[in-house]
Design goal:
This protein is mainly α. It folds into two domains: 12-254, Fic-like fold; 258-329, Arc Repressor Mutant, subunit A, CATH 1.10.10. The chain is 58% helix and 5% strand. The longest helix is centred in the last third of the chain and has 19 residues, at 236-254. The N and C termini lie far apart (55 Å).
Length: 330
């Protein structure tokens, strides 16, 4: 077989969007200081996981997704609940997976589809196609070619990581992966995670950007771009689409004042570090641990943001100002 070389064109629209995204990333530098802040990391992952699974018809709400991740009892389809657990485990590994390793790719798929797909972590053995009703509008490459094609795609990405802009390379990879359709199920969830990994290896900020939420918002356009590229025989339109998604994700992030994000995340992180799970402490005890003199500071800068995000709870929630009120980490 000939050397794998994904077909696409660099359009003026692609160049403009790459420039816009690169400029916006520089405005979000404060996010890069939060790589050790569990509060922000967790919230972003919840948004990403909910959206990526919703695209694949998972019926759980964002609140239910959060509850599953927090280990709470959730009433819902067993498969949907397991998918959330799997996705969270996979997204927690984003900085430990080699984006050019076929072994890690299969490992990620195995985690994402654990207990939900029969051939989890293994390439498909049968033919797959895209159907419109009973009509097959696109046939995926035969199963005997899958291993070779994925190896070539990963090799292409590795060889060109310093030659092709990561925003373009990751989008090409996304489309080509969908085209190859290497697994019998879970391809969409896997490749959306993998594009994040490719981008994370370029800019760590992508750990905090829920690109999947924007894809979910434009779900119809997502599939239309893929189908158009299938018909045209190149990924140009999909690259343009994905760059639009990333650009708008950055726009959403820029609406939130960075200083507020930093302050809240740091304060919440300090609060969580001084609390033990399910062990209530009074406001006075927390103030002593944090070396805070003002109850208003504790309430407004620490307790209220943490309660709002569902990270701590009150022992007397129906009487928030009770003198016997205590707080605990969940």
């Amino acid at each position: 077989m000939e050397k794998y070389n994904p077909p696409y064109e660099i359009t003026e629209l692609i160049l403009n969007r790459v420039a816009n995204i690169s400029e916006k990333i520089t405005k979000l530098d404060n996010y890069t200081n939060l790589n050790k802040k569990p509060y922000l990391r967790k919230q972003t992952k919840i948004n990403s996981i909910h959206s990526s699974l919703a695209i694949e018809n998972n019926k759980l709400t964002k609140d239910q997704v959060k509850d599953v991740i927090d280990g709470k009892l959730v009433l819902g389809p067993k498969k949907d609940i397991q998918e959330v657990k799997n996705a969270y485990n996979a997204y927690e590994m984003i900085n430990n997976l080699n984006p050019y390793s076929i072994k890690d790719l299969k490992k990620a798929h195995g985690i994402i589809t654990y207990l939900t797909v029969k051939d989890s972590g293994k390439f498909r053995k049968g033919n797959e196609g895209v159907f419109n009703g009973k009509n097959c509008i696109f046939m995926c490459p035969p199963p005997e070619n899958v291993d070779y094609l994925i190896k070539q795609l990963l090799k292409w990405a590795k060889e060109n990581k310093n030659k092709i802009h990561p925003l373009i390379l990751s989008s090409v990879f996304h489309y080509e992966f969908v085209f190859i359709h290497p697994f019998s199920d879970g391809n969409g969830r896997t490749v959306r995670l993998w594009q994040n990994i490719l981008l994370y290896n370029w800019k760590k900020i992508f750990e905090y950007l829920p690109i999947e939420s924007q894809i979910y918002k434009y779900q119809k356009g997502y599939y239309e771009a893929i189908n158009d590229c299938n018909n045209l025989g190149n990924s140009t339109e999909f690259i343009e689409f994905m760059l639009k998604i990333i650009d708008e994700t950055l726009d959403e992030a820029l609406k939130i004042p960075n200083t507020l994000i930093v302050e809240d995340a740091i304060n919440i992180n300090k609060l969580l570090n001084c609390l033990e799970k399910n062990v209530p402490l009074s406001a006075k005890e927390i103030m002593e641990k944090l070396n805070i003199k003002s109850k208003n500071t504790l309430r407004n800068k620490y307790l209220h943001p943490a309660i709002k995000e569902g990270l701590i709870k009150q022992t007397i929630p129906n009487k928030p100002n009770s003198s016997k009120q205590m707080y605990y980490k969940i």
